[in-house]
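Protocol step 4 of 6: structure prediction from sequence.
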Amino acid sequence: MSLEDHAEDLASDLGVDKEEVKRDLENLVNYSVPMDEAKQSLRRKYGGGSSSGGDGTPSSKAISEVTTGDSNVTVTAVVLTSGRRSIQYNGEQHVIREGELADETGKISYTAWDGFSGDLEPGQTVRLGNAGVREWDGKPELNLGDSTQPEVVDETLAIDYEVGGRASLSDLEPGDRGITVEVQVLECEQKVIDGRDGETTILSGVLGDESGRLPFTDWEPHGEIEVGASVRIEESFVREFRGAPSVNVSEFSTVTALDRTVEVAEDAPRISVHEAVDSGGLFDVELVGNVIEVRDGSGLIERCPECGRVIQNGQCRSHGTVEGEDDLRTKAILDDGTGTVTVVLGDELTAAVYGGDIDDAREHARNAMDKEVVAERIADRIVGREYVVRGSLSVDEYGANLTASTFAEADDDPATRAETLLREAEA
């Protein structure tokens, strides 16, 4: 069924104007809301419900009282952040505003669609009448459209949140919008990707500050972003990349070179495997544990020359029969007593633990007439030993994987570390 048909059926059921329903439905669907959820949201919006007063007008609610079961509400709150983003539907570009609002009871995210007549500026206190409510990532979010009545009010609210979106990298979470960071560009490379308008040039790399490091993507390359530069990035937003937050810079972002150097934390936070896995993903983390196993798919492997995937018996899942290219890789299980994670070592780290480069590995396998001898030597050298591993952690339905940037045998005294842990547990 087409969106037009969905809109027609919904408008008929609700007894409202089809074009208005169609416009609202397009907005939601093009903001990645599933069709069933979008229709349910509009049924709540046009069908009345518990959020309305006896005269049919939306009830005024504190932010903490707004739930996903509400259809429309009136809230009075302070604008914390306001960021712009471009989306595309029906072949046209549309600019939406999004951010967070807060009152004395809590905060809530919002999206202001085409037709919203307000001008939301951080620090303003606003009353938003007839604001729609939808569920986003399991939480209520305000939808501001042409039926929302915005009003700037002269009222002071005692909020417990910082206005303006200034944040450290370690504070960022996927979904944050209108964010300002001051960072040093640690890594930066230019890429050409297939964008929605064809080939697009972007920048990607790593940013750092005193709290940590995160990846970034600049969708509209800014000249100020280059390796070694310290910059202030305003009006950015945060997405999830391999389970961790990623800073996104857009055409609406302002990038300003700083006249000082932003200091960057040298060390990654060291936490337990359980804490790391429970986080859902971390870009830069350090784990300590014992290697208890080297998994299949380690040692001398072959990759597809087209996509880089590991191939089996000359077969790539994406490109069929290919002439594989030799590579070195290690997949080791790390256990610290609280949980396990698969540590993936690339070619350089694998060569270091193997004790030879790829030519040595080929010769070793040829002499033994068995590729498995490379993985066996790696296992002999690392299984049963304790290692400090730093890298990027991703967690999915298949488990937790840490792509290592460093892999070094632990040199601290286990007894001393145990005593430290006991003291921390008793504190």
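Step 5 (inspection) to follow. The first strand starts at residue 59 and ends at 60.
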